[in-house]
Design goal:
Layout (H helix, E strand, L loop, with lengths): L16 E5 L19 H13 L4 E4 L4 H8 L6 E3 L4 E3 L5 E3 L4 H16 L5 E4 L4 E4 L7 H14 L3 E6 L2 E6 L4 H8 L9 E6 L5 H9 L3 E5 L8 E3 L2 H24 L1
Helix pairs in contact: 1-7, 5-6
């Protein structure tokens, strides 16, 4: 456990790394509405060059669906785990999804639509196989949102409740970012590398735990107690670290080629 600020374990030139990034709060500043979020062009360029240096071993691991991640990362096309790993795209572009039964999705959607409509300022994001209940614009309804989610989990045992920053998500059992990262690490170009994962939210803790178990490097963005080994203070610090890491990796690759 760590609570320190701006400390990241050093990367070693002789080690081959695989990089995993959360998006909201890590590669992109959090905004009042999810559709207002963007990733700066320079950050996308750093990700592109890092992926080239690491033979494609760079992936996004997010609560957002893959189609939203593609829009944010465009023109990059990266391996991705969307909806906390309920949908995944590997380095060859193959997509796999964990789906809920259509009848379950319909029943939950109807109930959530009615409940959210009664809580002004809250919003429902229906991801097909998961549901995000946002209350950033109406924090006074946090308890009501949490109770609503808990009541649905009690009646639909195939779901699990996942708290986040001003959001509570309902997602399929067994789906989390740690499982997604471990799955990526079994296949090229990630296999045989040391994982590095950056994230900022409670949803990223499963990823930190998985990466720690794989003897990788886990980095928490922002304040709060975490299972991560390292810490960066905010999104701007992530951008600096990414730029420095990309430059160092480029130098390490160039040195290896000359040798």
């Amino acid at each position: 456990m760590t609570t320190q600020t701006d400390f990241v374990p050093p990367l070693h030139a002789e080690t081959r790394y695989a990089f995993f990034f959360d998006v909201d709060g890590t590669l992109a500043a959090i905004k009042p509405r999810p559709d207002e979020v963007s990733i700066p062009v320079q950050v996308l360029d750093d990700l592109k060059r890092l992926a080239q240096q690491c033979e494609g071993a760079v992936a996004l691991v997010s609560g957002r669906p893959i189609d939203q991640l593609d829009a944010l990362a465009s023109p990059l096309v990266l391996p991705m785990a969307g909806v906390h790993g309920a949908e995944r795209r590997n380095s060859e572009g193959q997509i796999t999804r964990i789906a809920l039964a259509p009848a379950t999705v319909t029943a939950i959607s109807r109930e959530l639509d009615a409940a959210i409509a009664a809580l002004p300022g809250t919003s429902l994001e229906n991801k097909g196989m998961a549901f995000a209940l946002h209350y950033r614009q109406a924090p006074q309804y946090q308890q009501a949102i949490e109770q609503l989610a808990a009541s649905l989990v009690a009646r639909f045992p195939e779901l699990v409740q996942q708290p986040g920053k001003c959001v509570v998500e309902l997602k399929p059992q067994g789906v989390n970012k740690g499982a997604a990262i471990k799955d990526f690490m079994q296949y090229p170009p990630f296999a045989g590398r040391v994982p590095v994962f950056l994230g900022d939210d409670l949803t990223d803790e499963a990823g930190f735990i998985a990466v720690n178990a794989l003897d990788g490097i886990s980095i928490k963005v922002g304040a709060g107690t975490s299972n991560a080994q390292g810490r960066l203070s905010d999104v701007t610090a992530v951008y600096r670290w990414l730029a420095q890491t990309r430059i160092k990796t480029d130098e390490d690759v160039s040195t290896s080629v000359r040798s």
